[in-house]
Amino acid sequence: MQGFTDDHEQFRGSLRTFVEREITPNAVAWEHEGQVPRALFQKLGELGFLGVRLSPDYGGAGLDFWYTSVLVQELMQCGSVGVTVAIMTHAEFATKIIELAGSKELMDIFLKPAIVGEMIGALGVTEPGAGSDVASLRTRAVRDGDDYVINGAKTFITNGTISDFITTAVRTGGPGHSGISLIVVPADTPGLTRRRLKKIGTHSSDTAELFFDDCRVSARNLLGQENGGFKPIMQGFGGERLVLSLIACAQMRLMWNAARQHGHDRKAFGQSLLDFQVWRHRLADALTSIHAAEALMYQGIDLYVRGEPCNAEISMSKLFCTETAISVARECAQIHGGMSHMEECQMARLYRDSLAFTIGAGTSEVLREIIAGASGLTPERQRR
Ligand SMILES: Cc1cc2nc3c(=O)[nH]c(=O)nc-3n(C[C@H](O)[C@H](O)[C@H](O)COP(=O)(O)OP(=O)(O)OC[C@H]3O[C@@H](n4cnc5c(N)ncnc54)[C@H](O)[C@@H]3O)c2cc1C
To answer: Is 235 a residue whose pLDDT tops 90?
Structure first.
């Protein structure tokens, strides 16, 4: 496995300085505001952090996914999962898919400004009636002259209200996955309305419902072929699931370090909590789980970077890292006692934020189905 080289570590150093100076001091305020400011995207864009693995033809750095891994790990050092989610939704989920399928014209209109942080992107796939079952989505785009007219709704869309464009999955054909297209919808399109949702966690990332009411969008905003949208959506899941694995592992490290510190500092019955063997063992178990999760994740990243088939391995990585994060969060919260329930405590915020990641970009159940399918466990009649 290649892993991180000196060049990756140099990149890490420059990011660390930026995060310490520009993000960490503001992260709690952004949690309360429910979003990250546009200026953050602009600063990240100026420094080249938003197009890390996007093509240099459009202003990206054209680097491998190990650099994206460094980006996620260092963003997470600010202690706010929502900040990382907002930035990575833009820098990976909404834009990589445009690069995968878009025309040169769309790169100029959306990808280039996104890479320099002048535009913010969102990815709109999930609908009120279609989440895991992407192929059943119903938001319809009907061709009318040089435009598509879009009607329908999306939900749980990260960057939903702060974005300038939404890479949107729509139905242009018949039922099932072969009738789905991707259209980039400018956020100022008449007929598009957005409503921010209140969440129980990841507060600094804005999540919204989107309503499309006769939204007229140029047919040139179609990504790739009409009815050819399902494949790039599935291709995009590889990077998305690794990003969520990285977030979960970085989050576990933050929580574990906080738990260790608290275990040293907090006294009960005349001794530190870590003087109780039970806490040494519980944190030893948690650390073992973190190492196992990281090993699985790095294996997935390595295969992905080398272009090997790795759908099952990436699914295992996301499944194990995000499920483990919840159990590690519970252990690390428990040692904090009452503080683990207080808004002012970073551990408390990380604890609740861990709940989102067994859902987004493929639920744990969907991932188990992928792993089962790749392992020959799924009966012939149920294979799709
Ligand atoms: C914080 C957050 C941010 C998000 N950001 C985005 C975004 O930016 N863009 C976007 O498009 N979406 C986004 N999502 C939506 C996310 O991708 C969906 O929530 C997810 O795909 C699940 O869909 P659903 O919520 O409709 O649940 P459902 O699909 O209705 O699933 C409900 C339950 O049924 C289970 N289930 C479904 N199918 C099966 C099956 N075949 N076998 C067994 N169990 C099954 C699921 O695992 C789950 O436990 C976000 C979600 C969250 C929580």
So the answer is: yes
State yes or no: pLDDT of 232 exceeds 80.
yes
378 pLDDT band (50/70/90 cuts)?
Answer: confident
pLDDT tops 70 at residue 384? no
74 part of the active site: no
Break the chain into its structural domains and give their ranges. Answer: 6-120, 122-226, 231-376
Reported as a pLDDT band with limits 50, 70 and 90, residue 381 is: confident
**CATH class for domain 231-376?**
mainly alpha
Q: Is the pLDDT of residue 380 over 90?
A: no
Q: Which atom of ligand 1 is nearest to the CA of 202?
A: 1
CATH fold of 6-120, please? Butyryl-Coa Dehydrogenase, subunit A; domain 1 (1.10.540)
Residue 383 has pLDDT above 90, yes or no: no
Query: Residue 382 has what pLDDT?
Result: 79
Contacts of 75 by beta carbon, 8 Å cutoff, 6+ apart: 15, 19, 23, 83, 84, 87, 88
Measured from the Cβ of residue 192, the count of other Cβ atoms closer than 10 Å reads 19
C-alpha dihedral sign at 242, 325, 208, 39:
negative
Distance 135 CA to ligand 1 centre (A): 13
CATH for 122-226 is 2.40.110.10
Q: Which of 92, 240, 313, 323 is labelled catalytic? A: 240
Pocket of ligand 1 (CB under 6 A): 89, 123-126, 131-132, 156-158, 202, 207, 356, 359-361, 363, 365-366, 369
Task: Give the distance from CA 70 to its chain's centroid.
Answer: 14
Tell me the one-letter amino acid at 233: I
**Bridge partners for 18 per DSSP:** none
Residue 157 Cα to ligand 1 middle (Å): 11
